[in-house]
Amino acid sequence: MEPVSPVPARPTVDLTGLPPERLLAHVQELGGRPVHAWTLLRALHREGLPDPAQVVPHLGKRLLAQLARTSHVARPRLGGGLASADGTTRYLLELRDGHRIEAVDIPEDHRTTLCISSQVGCAFGCSFCRTGTLGLERNLDPGEIAGQVALLRAHIEQAGREVTNVVFMGMGEPLANYPAVRDALQILMHDRGGGFPPKRLTVSTSGLPAGIRRLGEDFGGRISLAVSLTGTTDAQRDRLMPVNRRFPLDELLAACRAYPLAPGRTITFETVLLGDETDRPADADRLAALLGDLPVKVNLIPFNPFPGCGHRPPTPESIEAYFRRLNAAGVRTMIRQPRGRDVGAACGMLAASAPGLSSPPPAPRLARAPGPSPDGDGGPSSGTTG
Ligand code: SF4
Q1: How close is the Cα of 231 to the center of ligand 1, in Å?
Q2: Of 21, 89, 189, 249, which is least surrounded by CB within 10 A?
Q3: Rounded to whole angstroms, how far apart are CA atoms 244 and 228?
Q4: Ligand 1 centroid to 122 CA: how many Å?
């Protein structure tokens, strides 16, 4: 496993977390040329090299010495992993200060989605989410966010699979750590950085209207947006998702309506189906009415129970009935099949601890035979938390 870089004796810049324009400025200040900055950006984020010294021939010894004096590389370290019978792999990642986070590799026939974390723990306390029981330890910095992708992409590519989509649905509320998430998105979508088309980067929120507006303004609606709704009345949502007490449904939906989507694009609404709570016909009817004027698709997520939670999973019959009712109302709806449930990697189950999670990470799963081409849509068909 790759060693964690030692904490530098004096403050230096983390190259992994510098958005492209800031990396360019940093390299130029050190006497480098734009080509050096772009070589470095690609090496760190596309080729997954953990150390600028590995691109010496392109950077030159003088620039390399300057970089070593002024900067460091601080991406997370692979600390362990668990492979699910369904091909999903849950990874434990260790940060420089000893904190741990998780990321999940979700292979499907035509794409591989990486679900990453934006915070250590989460302050939002959604009652159906295990991460919410941890409380918030701290925000991740941009290098720790983009570094999850760089690290795991290189790992997964060893098995001949290409990471096609990234979803911010791991631990944390991404829009509560907006500046770092914004910088990481800039790195991931830059053609010399991560190189991901913006529509294949999905930010999922529990419902922060100001964050949705900033994301829309900063990226012109090109980043895919997912909203965890689950409750269909303020009373229901207040109980299940405390964020609603500050930002009720009408404020959240107003921010969604203002999100500057390109024509043909949709916002994904995630609804966790809780047995006898949010999976009833009346819930489906209210959801259809709430979303009526929005370009949306709905992902239905059958609840994944965890110890101590007060909810029950829905029955197969209630899932099917809910699905049919929404479709009949003209709402494009998918039932998200739980992935990685046997290793605690499914929606709402991440807690950075589990028996066996600290064991050596499994080798990445090999690519399956190619099928028809990907649908090209940025919205997640897979992810973990709501
Ligand atoms: S669903 Fe998201 S916002 Fe809610 S507690 Fe879990 S990680 Fe936090």
Answers
A1: 14
A2: 21
A3: 11
A4: 6
**Ligand 1: does its nearest atom lie under 6 Å from the Cβ of 117?**
no
Q: How far is 280 from 166, CA to CA, in rounded Å?
A: 32
Alpha carbon of 73 to those of 35, 51, 191, 232: distances in Å?
19, 7, 20, 44
- In this prediction the pTM is 0.90
Q: Is the CB of 129 under 6 A from ligand 1?
A: yes
CATH code, 13-72:
1.10.150
Q: Please pick, among 94, 102, 137, 277, the residue that the annotation labels catalytic.
A: 102
State yes or no: is 122 an active-site residue. Answer: no
| CA atoms of 74 and 11, how far apart (whole Å) | 12
The reply to whether ligand 1 has any atom less than 6 angstroms from the CB of 122 is yes
CA 376 to chain centre: 18
CA pair distance 306, 329, nearest whole angstrom: 32
Nearest residue by C-alpha to atom 7 in ligand 1: 172
User: Is residue 383 in contact with ligand 1, taking CB distance under 6 Å?
Assistant: no
Answer whether 244 contacts ligand 1 (Cβ < 6 A).
no
- What number of other Cβ atoms are within 10 A of residue 37's Cβ? 24
> Best of 102, 206, 301, 304 to mutate for ligand 1, by most ligand atoms within 8 A of CB?
206
Q: Where in the chain is the domain with CATH 3.20.20.70?
A: 77-343
Residue 23, beta-bridge partner list: none
CATH of 77-343 among 3.40.630.10, 3.30.1490.20, 3.40.190.170, 3.20.20.70:
3.20.20.70
Give the whole-angstrom CA distance, residue 321 versus residue 336: 15
Is 102 annotated as catalytic?
A: yes
